[in-house]
Amino acid sequence: MDFDDTPEEAAWRARVRAFLEEHRDDLGRRSGPRTSDDRVARERQALLYDGGLVGVTWPVEAGGQGGTPMQQAIVDQEMARADVPGPINLIGIGMCGPTVIHHGSEDQRSRYLRRLLRADDLWCQLFSEPASGSDLAALRTRAVQAEDGSWRVTGQKVWTTLAHLADYGILLTRTDPDVAKHRGLTMFVVDMRAPGVTVRPLRQMSGGADFNEVFFDDVVIPDSERLGDVGDGWRVALTTLMSERLSLGGGGTEIGPGAAAVVRHVAARLPDLSPDRQALARQRLGRAYVDSLAIRYTGYRQLSKISKGELPGPEASAGKLAGTRVALDLADLAVRVLGDDAAYAATADGVRTWQDLQAVLPGMAIAGGTDEVLRNIIGERVLGLPPEPRADKGMTFRESLAAAGASAEERR
Ligand SMILES: Cc1cc2nc3c(=O)[nH]c(=O)nc-3n(C[C@H](O)[C@H](O)[C@H](O)COP(=O)(O)OP(=O)(O)OC[C@H]3O[C@@H](n4cnc5c(N)ncnc54)[C@H](O)[C@@H]3O)c2cc1C
Known about the structure:
- It is a single chain.
- This protein is an alpha+beta fold.
- Helices cover 47% and strands 12% of the residues.
- The chain contains 14 helices and eight strands.
- The longest helix has 33 residues, at 275-307.
- The chain is globular and about 70 Å long.
């Protein structure tokens, strides 16, 4: 990969930088407190969209810019440099939109995509359930087709980011329990305001409430809101999950604003530290620097694959795994080296406090594939280790529930 901008990329970078400078005051600060008003966040995203900085790689017919992955990476880099927060509709842009682009009907694409990019509508991803997270294909939310062709959905989702604000969601359901678990799934777009949808926020240890439990009680979804064929939901979900891994580990060329702020902070305080703390801090900053370079180059490797039209491989899993470790290491460093002092100084900088980082970062090691699951992927696909034993191989979903001791009610 050529690390220098081509003349076209340099021109794009200059354009992006000029736009961000011009609208600096209206776009908020990434390092400052997050706005709790979603209307403000929606307006900021609309401003970015109108400036051509949202949906850079999306096709023009889908409301995007028809640009290259490199142009998107440049936007990410320039937004980080200008301390501009990312769009609020992150799940919509990173996961739901690409799924609608690939599997939605013409009508769905024209109704939903442009509005999603401008944050006129917010979206959420309704996949995880109390008994299915890593083993997503074991989900139980049922969709049954009525005589008029519409679907009736009953079940529960959990950890649904942004559901409390979302207008629409992509919903993975079980439509046939009598085939193997991956084969009986179907995906829909669901109107989050439809009768029978109940959203309950979950309070996190960080004090925020970004996640929710979502209950579906006989919710009616028209057949025209299906994404892909009946029973083809797993293939549709793979589009979502691939896009998710790309958007979490894929931009992958930076270590994240929270971690970068910790580095700046610890580095600035080095001269004031006792010699033993200084030695520890230097050693750990050095390791974080080397790791972050490895993350950056892995991210570039992936970017060049995507630029050539190839599908990304397990680099995205490796990038996410390593990025999480560096961020956690740095938050830990701030606590160990600076102690209580870190809390005050970081607050004074307007940066998230280390307590905040400690409470938020562990979620990174779970969202979008846990560290253990990513290690399994690397073990199987990179190192060629034997695959994990799959206890429910060759069973229908209903049989696997029975084998796991589920009650007759649960198996219905
Ligand atoms: C910040 C955040 C945002 C999220 N947003 C959403 C969202 O918007 N929509 C959504 O649908 N979900 C969302 N989730 C849920 C997320 O996808 C799940 O939490 C994740 O898939 C793990 O599932 P689980 O919580 O059920 O844990 P489990 O899968 O039950 O895992 C429990 C533990 O067992 C380990 N484990 C499981 N399987 C294996 C295995 N095969 N080998 C080794 N170890 C294993 C795991 O690593 C973990 O440590 C979010 C989660 C977080 C933290």
